[in-house]
Amino acid sequence: MIRCLIVDDERLARELIADNIRLIPFLELAGSCKNALEAMEILRTEAIDLVFLDIQMQGISGIQLLQGGLIDVPMVIMVTAYENYALEAFNLDVLDYLMKPVPFERFFKAVSKARDQYLLKRKQPAEPAESQYVFVNSEYSLIRIDIDQITYVEGLKDYIKIYQMGRDKPVIPRLSLHYMEEKLPAGKFLRVHRSYIVALDKILSVRKNRLFVEGAEVPFTENYREGIMRYIEQRNF
Question: Out of 2.40.50.1020, 1.10.10.10, 2.170.16.10, 3.40.50.620, which CATH number does the structure's domain 133-234 have?
Answer without folding.
Answer: 2.40.50.1020
